[in-house]
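Appendix B. Extra example for self-study. Work through it before the problem class; the solution is given directly after the inputs so you can check yourself.
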Amino acid sequence: MPNQSNDPAELWRTFLAEAEKNYNNLANQAMASPEFSRLMNQAGGASFGAQKMLGEMMERYLGSMNLPSRAQLADMGERLQAIEAQLMEIKAMLVASLGDAAAAGATGVAPRPKPPRTKRPPSAAAGAAGGNGP
Amino acid sequence: MSPAAQQAQADIAGRLQQEIQRAVQRSIKGVEYIGSAAPAMGVTPKDVLVTRGTMSLYHYRPLVDEIYRVPVLVVMATTNRGYILDLAPGQSFIEFLLKRGFDVYMLDWTAPRPDEKHLRIDDYVLDFIPDCIRRVQQDSGEPDVSIVGYCFGGVLSLLYASIFSQGPLKNLVCFTTPIDFREMKLFHNFSDRRYFNVDQLVDSVGNVPPELILSSFEMLRPVSRTVGQIQLWENIWNDEFVKSYRMFDRWSTDTLPLAGEYFRQITKDLMWGNKLYERTMTVGGHRADFHSIKVPLLHAVAEHDHIVPYGASRHLIPNVASTDKEEVVLKGGHISLVAGANAAKRLWPKLDSWLSERSV
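Solution. Structure tokens for the complete assembly:
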């Protein structure tokens, strides 16, 4: 294999890594100034203000067309999620109150055997093994 | 021609041939890449114990016949999804813990709904985490629980541990958790109180959109996305590289919105007031001073963390009241600390050895 100093692919990779580091550092220095913060927040504030206005206009327009807005569809999705969550709560309560075997019959889900909580850390296991030795 | 020169010529010819083969592979695999689905993530078998709005609690099914007594609750950062800790089989932190005999639960987040814009840090610390702890206790039948908090999940876990210092928390593990928010210098400048009107933002958008969160993360390393794409093209012949790139790229762009009031509180109390570091933080009227934490505590931080630099996280271990405490500074960045080959080699075994001793 060619050594690293004359391998063009390796040189390219090194260049790329260095360039990434340098440009990121340069940009970070520029972004650390109060002036950058002022400009960024000015632009951000204007953009969110415009977005809000556009959203309100669209909602009025969709309402006049007798169509649901995105917010209304999201609300509907939320209701479905809430119903799902409540079903899961009921299922969990059923399992808790009937016990695993009965709940398995009621829910159609077989209970999983739980492994014993007796595991010892490797150091204790090694110590025990040492203790049993001659 | 000398033998050395002949050798060099043969090397260059071999390298040229390899590059031509790779160029051909790039064309073929590049087309495949566009048409193929992203690799499946978060597939370790689990049961959803509860979903309540933005909160989800999973229980991962044990993979071994004998487990440690104390269950582990992983608290994910609120900005991103938990599957970063459960990448593909063989590269999953969760799978690693299960195979090492831990009983693992995860408090994960989904996008807060519009009607959840009023959620505050109080809801996360005094409601979601205690509710999950109670459910973990119920499901496992064990009174003690260990918590592993990643990034802002670590901050929430610290606030919880500060307020509920009488238990039932058995051990606390934080990954790359900020304490001194002034040291997150660029975030601090982006949210400079002279120019950043957080009230106007939250009042106009409700929940803070994921695009804003993502762009503020990406601005920390503005060139890295482009360089990443160049590297992808260069390595597109390499299936393993492409798989890994896609997993991390998908996760890092799958940012969650933040509940409006929660964001407002983070900005005012933590970013502007630096109340966690200053020990003046209160949550729902409770004083949340991390100096009062007494449980065994492990804090893992990354040497090259561009999101939570060491200056922001280094104050945790020296200041907690715990006598059993340890800080480990590992090679890597904010994400490679917890996921990927680097994490599998460094952080995971460290956590296993630390937590296993304290989980009986």
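Self-check: Chain A touches chain B through 53 residues (CB under 8 Å). If your reasoning did not lead you there, revisit section 3.
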